[in-house]
C-alpha cells in the first residue's frame, strides 16, 4: 500500500470513530451528508489517502482508502455473516496462501469468499458454490466492489451433490449440513489437503466429526474462539460488558491416503 | 499443493496422531525409530505424500508433506512462542496480503516472521528486527527450513531506537516495551497502515494504548482471544478440561494524517 | 418451603416465561393487566402456590411464591447491581453460614446485603455500611420486602474512615476504593477471617491486592467468573449469541496473626 | 468464628502459601514434618488460631482453624469432585438456606453434600443418596470430620428407582443419567421447588432438558461457569496461563402445578 491521491470515482472510507465509518464513492461537485455535517467531495479530490478533512460542522473525518475488511463490513448481508475472528482461524488452519486452490460453500454474501481470495492471490483460485441463486447475485455485487473477482469462480450448485474440482488444497464449508459434504470433499481434496467446517450448533459439529472419522480423515479437531474486547484506559481498564458469546465451532481435518 | 513423490533429502512429517508427529529428513538406507516401531526410509522413497506406511510394529503412520504450521511447531524455541490463534488474528487485523511490506520485531524464534512471510509472497517483504544476536541465528535456521527466506530480511537492531524502512503497510510487535516503539512506528508506517502489538500483561497494553492515542492513531482496539478445544464424540461431547487460559492481548490501531 | 395458600396481601410472582415475570401484591377484587391478558386476583386467592392460572386471553401463568432471588431481580436499583454469579462466589469464598457476623459496604440497593443475610440466619448479622444517605433509604425498602431485616443492621457511614465492629468473620466490599478499606478491615476481622472485594476494573484489583500484601493478608487470590448461558434444544444446542462479557473481579484474602 | 485456643486433638490447617497447606491433627509431644522443616505441636498447643509459628528451618507457617472448604479440599476422593465455582452456583440457584430440605444424589465423596448441609443448618436436612456402597463409607468418613453429619442423612439407594422424601425444596443431582431421575424428582419436590443437575457432557444436558420440558418444569436454564484466576501484581498483571477449561454444565428448573 503506497500513499496515493484520491480521485473521482474512487471508493473512500470516511472514518469518524471505530463505530462510525462510511464507505462511499467520490463524486465531483457533490457532497456527503452525516449527522456531524457534510463533506464536499471537491475538498477531498486530490488529497492523499489517510489525511483528515473537516466537515461543515468543523468535525474531523479521516479519509481512508478502504481495506478488504472495510468492504466486508459494508457488504449487504443476505445471510448470517462470518465474523473476522472465525475467518482468521479458518485461513490459518487451512494452510492456504498465494497459489492455493480452494472449494468453498456456501457463498452467502461473499464475505468469507473474498477473504480467501485475498490470500490466494495472485495465482490461486476460490471455487465458491452457492445453491440459492438469489444469494449468488448479491455476493457477486459485493465481491466485485473489492476487486477480487479475478481470483474467484462463483458457481451455482449444491456441494452435497457435486463438486467439479479435483486436487484442491482446501474445502471450506459454512452451510447447514456439512456432514453430507464430507465424502465429496474427500474426493475433491488433494492428499494432505485440509477440510474445514464452521457450524453454529454442537449437533452439527458432532455429525461432521463422525463423518470425517468414517472417511479416514486425520487430525480432526474442533475449536471455539471466544473474542473479548478490552476497554483500555489508564485507571478504567476492563473487558467490555456486553460481548458476542458464541458464533460457531470450527472443525478441521486433514485428508490422507486410505488404509490399505 | 499437488500430490507429489517423496524423494531423498525431503522433509517429511510422520503423523501418528494429533499429538504425536515427527518432522524428519528422508535419508536413503536409513531408518527412523519411534516407540511404535521403526520406519525404513527406503519403504518411503518414491511413495506419494499423504499416503500411509506401516512401522516394524505394524502401526500406521501418515506421510505428510510438512506445511508451514508443521515447521512452526517444531521450531527450536529460544523464546516464548506466539500461538497460532494469535498469529491468525494478527494477520487478519493487519490487512496484509500478497505484496505487503511489514516491519516486525522482535524476531524471536521466527515463528511469526515466517507466518507473515507466507502471506506477503510473492512480491512483499518482512523486515524483521531482533536486538539479541543469539536469537537471530536460531531464527535464521528455523526460517531457512521453511523456504521463506526470500521474503524476509533479518536485521539486528533495536526498534525502540531506529527503524530504517518507510511507507510500510504494517508494524507488528511482540516485545517487552511496545509503547517505546510507537513514535518510530508512526514514522515508518504509510498513512492508513496498521500498528499491531501483542503483550502478555495488561499494564503493557495500557501503556501502548496511551502512546497510540498520544500519537493520533485511530481505531485503537484491544482484544483477547480465548480458544477452547472441544472433545467431540457422540454422547461424550464437552470442552477440554485443561486449556490455555491466556497468552496475551492484541492491540491494533491505524495511522492517519495528523491534525492540522 | 411448604406448599401453601395464596392470601390477600401476599407477594406473588406471576411467571409467564424465563424472561417475563411480574412481582405483585395480591389485592381482593382487583386485576393485574399484562400484554397477554389480565388476571383477576379473586381467581388466585385461595389457590396454592406453584399452581397455574389462565389470563383473560387464555394464556397460562404460574403462581410462584417469590424467592429471595425473585425479589432481588425486582429491587429498584439506585446503583449498579451485583450479578448472582458473583454473589454466589462471594458467599462461597467468604466461608460464611448460619451464625456468621459480616461487615459489608456499600449497601447500594441491598441486593448483596439481603443475599448475605439469607445465609447467616437465624443467629448471624450483616452490618451494612453506606456513605450515601439516599441509597440507604431505597435499600431499606428493598430489604424490608424480603423479610430479612432482622438479620441486617443498616449503617450510614464511610468504611474508609471507620468500622465499629470487631472480630467479624468476613468483610465484603463492593465500592470504588476498596484498597483504602484494607487497614480497617484488618482491624475488624477475626484472625482467620475473610476479606472479599468486588471491582469492575483491573486497576482497582491491583491496588487492593497490593494493600492486602502490605497488611500481611495471606491466600490473596483474584478470579473472574464468566457465565455462559447455553440454549439447549435437541439439534439446535449452542451457547447464547449475546452474553455479559464482564461484571468484575473478585479478590479474596485471609487475615492472619502478624509476623513477630 | 471467634478467635480461640489450639488444643490437643484439634484439627489444624498449617498454611505455607496458597498451594501448600496441611490439614493435620494436633498431638502432644509429636511433630509434623514438611520439606520446609518440622513443627513441634507443643509449640502450637495453647496458641490462638490464625497466629504464626516458625518451623525448625525458620519458615513461617500460619495456624488456621480449618473451614469447610479446607476440609473439602482434603477429602479423599473416590470420585471426580465438584469444583467450588459449581458448588457456589448450585447453592445460589437452588434458593436453599437455613431450614431447607434437600434430596441430593450421588453422594460421591460428600463434598457437595457437606456444602449443602453447611447452608441448611440448623433446622434443615440433606437426604443424600448413593447407589455404590463403597463410596458411601468413604463419604461418611469425610463428612464426619466436618462436623456436619447432624444435618445429613446418607442413604444407600438409586434415585432413578426410588426417592422416599416428599415436599423437598430442592433435588440436586451429580450423576450419570439425571434425565432418568426427572419424574421421581418431580414427585419429591414441593410445588415451586428447584431441580438442579450438574453434567460434564452436552448430550447429558440435552437429555435432561428434554425430560424437564416433558414433565412441565418451567424456567429451564443451562449455564456454564468459566472461572479465570488472575495473577495480580503491579506491572505483571494477567490471567493465568493454564486454566480449568471445563468442568460441567448446570441445568436448573422449577416445579409447577401441572396444566389442567
Describe the fold and architecture:
- 4 copies of one chain form a homotetramer.
- With 260 residues, chain A is an alpha/beta fold.
- Chain A has 2 domains: 11-66, Vcp-like ATPase, Chain A, domain 2; 71-254, 3-Layer(aba) Sandwich (Rossmann fold).
- Chain A has helices at residues 68-74, 84-94, 111-120, 133-146, 182-188, 202-214; strands at residues 11-17, 20-25, 31-34, 37-40, 52-54, 60-64, 101-105, 125-130, 152-156, 168-173, 189-199, 218-231, 238-239, 242-244, 249-254.
- In chain A, the strands form 3 sheets. An 8-stranded mixed β-sheet of chain A has the order 9-8-7-10-11-15-12-13, sandwiched between helices.
- In chain A, β10 (168-173), α5 and β11 form a beta-alpha-beta unit.
- Chains in contact: A-B, A-C, B-D, C-D.
- At the A-B interface, β6, α2, β11, α6 and β12 of A face β6, α2, β11, α6 and β12 of B.
